[in-house]
């Protein structure tokens, strides 16, 4: 659980550093994901989901962004992102 929460925080900061507006809200049955609102990139996370599920959504959104490879990341976060890309 500690790894999940730490990775979630690191991933949230990475998303913000890359210019995403991260919104954590109750979304009902919707899982969330990346989108563009008003021309600005957003990542929506469903607060009703467990932390591990929110982390997976966030990592999938970040893994699709080629700029991630240029960012300094922890080894654990880099490994999780690389596993998604492969």
Shape: globular
Q: Percent range for helical residues?
A: 40-55%
- How many helices in DSSP terms? 3
**Largest sheet features:** 3 strands, mixed
Q: In total, how many beta strands?
A: 3
Q: If classified by CATH, what would the architecture be?
A: 2-Layer Sandwich
Which band does the percent of strand residues land in?
15-25%
Question: What does this protein look like?
Answer:
The protein is of the alpha+beta class and 86 residues long. The chain has a single domain, classed as Zincin-like. Helices cover 47% and strands 21% of the residues. The protein contains three helices and three strands, in the order αβββαα. Strands 1-3-2 form a three-stranded mixed beta sheet. Strand 2 (32-37) and strand 3 form a beta hairpin. Helix 1 runs parallel beside helix 2 (51-63) and helix 2 (51-63) crosses helix 3 (75-85). It is globular, with a radius of gyration of 12 Å. The termini are far apart. The model has no long low-confidence stretch (mean pLDDT 93).
Element layout with pairings:
Elements lengths: L1 H16 L3 E5 L6 E6 L2 E7 L4 H13 L11 H11 L1
Helix pairs in contact: 1-2, 2-3
Short summary:
This protein is of the alpha+beta class and 86 residues long.
Fill in the keyword field for this structure.
alpha+beta; Zincin-like; 3 helices; 21% strand
């Amino acid at each position: 659980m500690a790894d999940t929460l730490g990775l979630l925080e690191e991933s949230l900061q990475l998303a913000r550093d890359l210019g995403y507006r991260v919104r954590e809200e109750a979304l009902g049955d919707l899982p969330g994901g990346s989108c563009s609102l008003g021309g600005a990139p957003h990542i929506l996370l469903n607060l009703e989901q467990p932390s591990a599920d929110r982390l997976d959504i966030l990592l999938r959104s970040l893994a699709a962004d080629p700029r991630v490879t240029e960012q300094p990341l922890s080894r654990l976060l880099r490994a999780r992102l690389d596993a998604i890309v492969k």
